[in-house]
Amino acid sequence: KLFKLISLLSWQDGSGKVCRVIRIGTRKSQLARIQTDSVAAKLKELNPDINLEIVAMSTIGDKILDTALSKIGEKSLFTKELENALERNEVDLVVHSLKDLPTTLPSGFTIGAVLKRENPHDAVVLHPKHIGKTLETLPDNSVIGTSSLRRAAQLKKRFSHLEFKDIRGNLNTRLKKLDEKADFAAIILAAAGLRRMGWDNRISQILGPEDCMYAVGQGALAVEVRARDADILEMVSVLHDPDTVLRCIAERAFLRHLEGGCSVPVAVHTEVKDSQVVFLYFVDEQFQRVGVTASKISGEAQDRAERLGIDLANLLLSKGAKEILTVARQLNDAR
User: Fold this and answer.
1) Porphobilinogen deaminase N-terminal domain: from which residue to which, for each copy (predicted)?
2) In Å, what is the CA distance from 53 to each residue of 15, 16, 190, 282, 320?
């Protein structure tokens, strides 16, 4: 049986060269396919002898579209089915938006690559009748669509004249709801997703950290693999972007120590300056650091990044963050 499995996943071409099939798991959405195709193209460029097969599937988060993410209560909304396929050897690696991956991965899995981050900030997409305005200049009581507690918690403080309501669905669905109905004056989306879809022209405003800090890992793509697959781990490791890795290790360590997730409003803003990670935050035999394996990046630098996230989390906990997050969860559960 093992021989048959190997023969299915590799063969000889006309020149006698052995060709291997690498199966990449992904969600079925258009954005997920675009992101996965970009990773596949990089791998193919670096490894011309491999053949890549894309295996698309739906996740819990894709199927439940009538409930706010924070109310579903599942930590692996967009990853569980993909990780199940990885565990069953139905795929060899999985491409995720890093912000969808819990900070503690299932046993036996690791993030083998964190690619260079796209713009991690949130973007305002206005209804056509409001083109030219900003959140600041929208009329009082205008309704803004977002399913993110993190976004709503920050923007309510900054723009108290606006109302915020849940909106679910993939990018295409949410844009359709905005354009074809009068329910929303604007919606808030990740700039990275809009840019990857080629919809830069829909971005009316980019929200800086003074208005809305972003989600942990937002804008970065992650490649998850089985930790025991040394050859796959080695192949994808060249995709690591060192600055993005260090920023995201710090962010994920911060979130994990706070025990945050979709049901609590935790946000961050990080930069690398002079080889140091600068961190802002908001609260309403391979060695892994918060699920990331990056053997080619200085272990000392990774340790410092992780320590930064933990130290900041401890600082917030000492100032009462645990109680605040507990109340946030209770309020979310009561909605």
Assistant:
1) 22-233
2) 22, 21, 28, 40, 49
Contact 225, 151 (CB under 8 A): no
Residue 16, burial from CB neighbour count under 10 angstroms (0-12, 13-18, 19+): exposed
H/E element holding 329? helix 321-334
Residue 258 is which amino acid? L
Residues 106-137: pLDDT tens digits? 999 999 999 999 999 999 999 999 999 999 99
A 10 A CB-CB count for 34 gives 14
Give the C-alpha separation, 127 to 153, whole Å: 22
Backbone conformation region of residue 291, classed left if phi is above 0, alpha if psi is from -120 to 50, else beta: left
DSSP three-state, residue 288: coil
CB distance 281 to 154 below 8 Å: no
Distance (Å, whole) CA 207 – CA 211: 6
Give the SS3 label for residue 234. Answer: helix
Look at residue 262 in the predicted model and tell me its pLDDT. 54
Q: With 0.85 as the threshold, say if the pTM is over it.
A: no
Backbone angles phi, psi at 305, to 5 degrees: -65, -45
Active site positions, annotated: 100
Letter for the amino acid at 211?
D
Confirm if 179 and 294 have CB atoms less than 8 A apart.
no
